[in-house]
Design brief:
By secondary structure, the protein is α/β, with parallel strands linked by helices. The chain has eight helices and six strands; from the N terminus they run ααβαβαβαβββααα. It has a six-stranded mixed β-sheet, with helices on one face. The structure holds adenosine-5'-triphosphate. It is an enzyme of class 2 (transferase).
Amino acid sequence: MTLAEISERCHNITSSYLANSNGSAIVEATKEAIQITRQQFLQEVFTRWDPFGDRLSFSYNGGKDCQVLLILYLSCMWEYFVTNIRSSQYSSQYHQFPLQFLPTVYINQAETFGTLENSIESTRIRYFLSVYESPRNQTSMPEAFRNYLDVNSNTEAIIIGIRHTDPFGADLTCIQETDSGWPRFMRVQPLLHWKLANVWSLLLYSNEEICGLYEKGFTSIGGINSTVPNPSLSMKLELGHSTLKNEFEWEIMHAYGKKEASDEVCVSKLSASDERLLQNKGHLDYYPGWYMIDDSLERAGRSRS
Ligand code: ATP
C-alpha cells in the first residue's frame, strides 16, 4: 500500500456508502453529514491550504472521531488529486500522487491504554501518518502544540476531529483561529455537525480496524486513570436496556469489502495489560460502544474531558 492507494480506498469507501440505498434515518443523515464535510474540505479548506503542501496538519489520537475524519480527509485528498488530473493538459500517466506521508500531530498527554497505543501505531502504518509525538506529560496542550509548531514552522492550519456535542464544541466553526493562550494557527473542524450515530455508521461500514476498546464498552477514550467503559452499557444494569440495541447491523453486515455478510467487526486486539486491567476492575460485561448513540452520554465513562 501507499498513501495514494489508501486514499483511493477511503474514497471508494465513502462513495460506496453514499451510493447505498439502505434508507435508514441514520444512514441518510450520515450521507448528508459526509456531503457537508466533503464540501468543506474541497471548497473551503483545500482552496486555502493545498493538502499536498506542508501548511496543513492532522491532529490524531487514535479515537473514533479523528479516525472517521481521517477517512474523509484521505477520501477528499484523492478526489482533489483526480480532479486536478482531469483539468490538467498532461495525460494521467504523468501525474504522481504528490504526498507519501501525512503530517500528523499526536499529543501524548496522559498515561494511555496499551490497546490505544497499539492502535495508533497500526493506524500510523496503515494511513502513512508521519506522526510528531509530543513527549508524554511534557506540558499543557497549548505548550505541546507550540513545540509542534516550533519544529514544523510552515504549519498554518491543523485539522481537528471535534464535534459540536463535545465539551466546548457548541459554538465552534469549521475554520477559526485558536483562542488566546494558544499558539496561533487555524483550527480546521469539518466534523462539527456529526452526531455520534453518524460516526459509528460510517466507521463500522468502512471495515477499517478500530481501537479494540470500543468493542469493550468504551465510547470515548481518555487517559487510563480517567476512562472506564460507559456505565450505561453495563450488562449488569437492568434499567434502560430495553432501549439499548445495535442500530448498525446493516453497516456491519454489509461493511465495505466484505465478501459475504457477517456480524464481525474489525477491531484491534486488546493489549495483555488492558485485558488484565478490565478483568481486575470487573469491567468485562459491557455492550460494544456502538450500542450507545445518545450524544449526551458519550463521555459518561470519562471523569476528565
Ligand atoms: P473519542 O471521543 O472516542 O476518544 P476522539 O479522540 O477522536 O474520539 P475527542 O477526544 O473528542 O475525539 O477529541 C477531538 C479531536 O481533538 C480528536 O479527534 C483529535 O483531532 C483532537 N485531539 C484530541 N486529543 C488529542 C491529542 N492528544 N493529540 C492530538 N489530537 C488530539
